UniProtKB/TrEMBL annotation:
Coiled coil feature spans: 121-223
GO molecular function: cadherin binding; structural molecule activity
PANTHER family linked: OLFACTOMEDIN-4, OLFACTOMEDIN-RELATED
Organism listed in the record: Panthera leo (Lion)
Secretion signal, residue range per the UniProt entry: 1-20
Taxonomic path: Eukaryota, Metazoa, Chordata, Craniata, Vertebrata
InterPro entries (UniProt xref): Olfac-like_dom, Olfactomedin-like_domain
GO BP field: immune response; negative regulation of canonical NF-kappaB signal transduction; negative regulation of immune response; positive regulation of substrate adhesion-dependent cell spreading; signal transduction
Compartment list: Secreted
One cellular component (GO) term of this entry: intercellular bridge
Protein name: Olfactomedin 4
Length: 504
């Protein structure tokens, strides 16, 4: 409905439209006095009495209703006419116009938010790109990174994670791009955590070890006045004057192997020579990505060189198989590819000096360790020299231990155990005693079995061995350092062995 004031001529026009009698009501030059004197005067007098106007029967349009009028002191006519909805829905149009205006304002507001989010996404895409470059540099570089570097990166990643959550809560429409960014940021966060645990120069691990030593020194200082029972000193390096392994330290993460994440299988350690027990070089021998072929290995004169990837001597061979490699007295001993032969390699020139067949040994993945393929023949070193751990068809897969002549590779003596080799995750020798491990879970191994070649006795142990990754590919023991060198899914780990101080 629309109510307004109409002049007489406009009112006459409406009346004419309503009644269908347009001609008589339209003023012309000849009818002006008649309209002014007769019709308008009578019509206004009718309006002042609040009468309603009703068209004659048979009119083509709906009637006008609720109209009033009056003449003011100056003789001006004031009329108010109410039109029916069917004539023209003015109020509805006004409501639609108002609603459209409100919706337009809301749309502009939401559109401004979208523009703001698009700008923020662009900014954080650049940040993500810069972070990716920085992480790649950190992954490939050999310099040390402190905890502060990692914390700064973590803060930036967390800021991006907060923005993504805000975008997901407020963004209307397709969220494909936002979901992709969320996945990339989550992957970036995981990669930073992996790099932090890698710590190529072992800076964080060394700091934690120093802190632990400081705490122990404080404890010793606090208890120096108390009566403490004096325990016997630990066995001398390279000595067997102890009662065997009773415990093991937490692992020290040295670094990732020099070939990278993809090279999960291999071995590493330190050369042991009875003539120069503390002067051996370090060696790292990762297998190819097939987990079988030993093709490249590196030698380092010092641990610092190994940590910094400097002064390395790299060699290539074409006949190594499995991760049962050992180094003794400046020679490397490996299982030859697709055979039961053992090769002796001179580390000065990477030349094979001796090859020898290991009698009756199963090979080519017949009785390898659990979770580790192609390690049917596992070479080991301890205080007594060179050993080989394997299985035969006659032993029905149980572990066999043979002492080797390190010069000719002939078998000097052999012992047969009752431990099934494929149920063992790995093994090592200490003072003529075989120690076997098994997997407890993804973060723990257990030294659970021993066989003493000195007495022929065997039995069970319960020494929990923490690890960084799920699978242990090889374990090598160094008699002078009294450490285990463990190759754990591509990472190089160190453990200190703890012996029973009372000799057997």
């Amino acid at each position: 409905m629309r109510t307004g004031l109409l002049c007489p001529l406009a009112l006459l026009f409406l009346l004419g439209q309503t009644t269908g009698n347009l001609e008589p009501l339209v003023p012309g030059p000849s009818s002006s006095s008649f309209l002014d004197s007769v019709f308008v005067s009578n019509f206004i007098s009718g309006l002042s009495s609040n009468d309603s106007f009703t068209p004659s029967p048979g009119s083509e349009s709906q009637s006008l209703s609720n109209f009033t009028g009056f003449e003011d002191d100056h003789g001006t006519c004031h009329c108010s006419v109410t039109l029916p909805d069917t004539t023209f829905p003015v109020q509805r149009v006004e409501r639609l116009e108002f609603t459209a205006h409100v919706l337009s304002q809301k749309f502009e507001k939401e559109l401004s938010k979208v523009r703001e989010y698009v700008q923020l996404i662009s900014v954080y895409e650049k940040k993500l790109s810069n972070l990716t470059v920085r992480v790649e540099i950190m992954e490939k570089d050999t310099i040390s990174y402190t905890e502060l570097d990692f914390e700064l990166i973590k803060i930036e990643v967390k800021e991006m994670e907060k923005l993504i959550i805000q975008l997901k809560d407020n963004f209307v429409g397709s969220t494909t791009i936002v979901d992709q960014l969320e996945v990339e940021i989550r992957n970036m966060s995981l990669l930073v955590e992996q790099l932090e645990t890698l710590d190529k120069n072992n800076v964080l691990a060394i700091r934690r070890e120093i802190l632990a030593l400081k705490n122990r020194l404080k404890e010793c200082e606090a208890s120096k006045g108390e009566n403490v029972t004096v325990s016997p000193p630990p066995p001398a390096p390279g000595s067997c004057g102890h009662g065997g392994v009773v415990n093991i330290s937490k692992p020290t993460i040295v670094q990732l192997n020099w070939r990278g994440f993809s090279f999960k299988y291999g071995a590493w350690g330190r050369d042991y020579s009875p003539q120069q027990p503390n002067g051996g070089l370090y060696w790292v021998a990762p297998l190819n990505t097939d987990g079988r072929h030993l093709e490249y290995y590196r030698l380092y004169n010092t641990l610092d060189d190994l940590l910094l990837y400097i002064n390395a001597r790299e060699y290539r061979i074409t006949y190594g198989q499995g991760s049962g490699t050992a180094v003794y007295n400046n020679y490397m001993y490996v299982n030859m590819y697709t055979s039961q032969n053992i090769a002796k390699i001179n580390l000065n020139d990477s030349r094979v000096e001796v090859t020898q067949t290991l009698p009756d040994a199963a090979y080519n993945n017949r009785f390898s360790y659990a979770n580790v393929d192609w390690q049917d023949i596992d070479l080991a070193v301890d205080e007594n020299g060179l050993w080989v751990i394997y299985a035969t068809e006659a032993s029905t897969g149980n572990m066999v231990i043979s002492k080797l002549n390190d010069t000719t590779l002939t078998v000097l003596d052999t012992w047969y155990t009752r431990q099934y080799k494929p149920s063992v995750s790995n093994a090592f020798m200490v003072c003529g005693v075989l120690y076997a491990t098994r997997t407890l879970n993804t973060r723990e191994e257990e030294i659970f079995y021993y066989y003493d070649t000195n007495t022929g006795r065997e039995g069970s142990l319960n020494v929990v061995m923490p690890k960084m990754r799920e699978r242990v590919q090889s374990i090598n023991y160094h008699p002078f350092d009294q450490k285990l060198f463990v190759y754990n899914d591509g990472y190089l780990l160190n453990y200190d062995l703890i012996f029973n101080k009372e000799p057997k």
